[in-house]
Amino acid sequence: MDVGINKLVLLIGIVHWRRRIGRGVSAVLEGMKVVGLDLETTGFDSRSERIVEYALVGSDSDGSHIRLCSLVDPERRIPSDSTAIHGITNEDVRGAGTFSEHMDKFSEIMEGSIIVGHNVMGFDWGFVHMEYLRAGSETPKVRGFIDTLKLARKLRIPGRHRLGDLCDRYSIDLERAHRADADASASLILLWKFMKEYPESFRVPLEDILETLD
After folding, report:
1. Where residue 176 falls among pLDDT bands split at 50, 70, 90?
2. Is residue 164 over pLDDT 60?
3. Distance CA 212, CA 139 (A)
């Protein structure tokens, strides 16, 4: 059965995953704040391009749901080839506020979180870091990362490892692909699918799963 992103609320109670995939597997994330992160941007180079949309979705340490999503004024024009990917136009972001105007709420959620995302360390976090540098602010201190792209490679999932391909493989209905909330949610569901299919890989200490920037 396909798992739609609009059914995410049924799946991202991460602290309650023991009822779905076994206590020994889910216990590694129990009591943790786990947040899916995805960004849409004006381009690929974090040093020169900017964020146009962000999404933080997941569950807090007490099991309550987290959802913070917004368009962002990148303070530059969005190239047409980028709009062709994510569908976000210059008109869409007008009046959305610069990233620095969103930082307080963004930081509050990110601080101490386990961050889940697809290529989150290779792409998204670089943009986050650069936005904080531009603002002269300290980047939030996160607990660590679970990058579903790296995880797919580590688990040797057959086939291509693009988010869309993995969603097809695991019957995840990726509605509105290349929008931040949809992709962040899909990454969380994909992690849940990995944990369900490869439980032995997650019956380990948390430090053996998390990646850090050190």
Report:
1. low
2. yes
3. 14
- Tokens representing residue 145 in the block: 């990362």
- Six-digit token string for 114: 């386990």
Rounded Cα gap, residues 183 and 174, in angstroms: 8
pLDDT at site 18: 41
Helices and strands in the chain, H and E counts:
9, 7
Domains in the chain and their CATH numbers?
Answer: 3-201 (3.30.420.10)
Opening angle at CA 118, ends 29 and 3, nearest 5:
75
**Whole-number Å distance between alpha carbons of 166 and 97:** 33
Query: Could you give phi then psi for residue 192, rounded to 5 degrees?
Result: -60, -40
Rounded to two decimals, the pTM is: 0.88
Q: Please tell me the distance from the alpha carbon of residue 210 to that of residue 193, in angstroms, as a whole number.
A: 17
Q: How many CB atoms lie within 10 A of CB 203?
A: 14
pLDDT of residue 177: 66
